[in-house]
Amino acid sequence: MIEFLTDIGIAGFFFFLTKGLLWVALFLLVYFGVIDKEKARAVKNKLRFWKRSKNTP
After folding, report:
1. Which terminal Cβ of the chain has fewer Cβ within 10 Å, N or C?
2. pLDDT tens digits along 11-22
3. What is the pTM of this model?
4. Domain limits at 22?
């Protein structure tokens, strides 16, 4: 049981590490002008699928 929890913990750590690095990379791409802010907003909106959009009641 402890090995299972350790495996899940390591998987969770790598998941959030990867997610954080991708966000940093996205912000750096916007900062250096590789992509524009509108494309970054589109990516951000696609990644936030679990939240309601402001247009829905």
Report:
1. C
2. 888 988 998 999
3. 0.61
4. 2-47
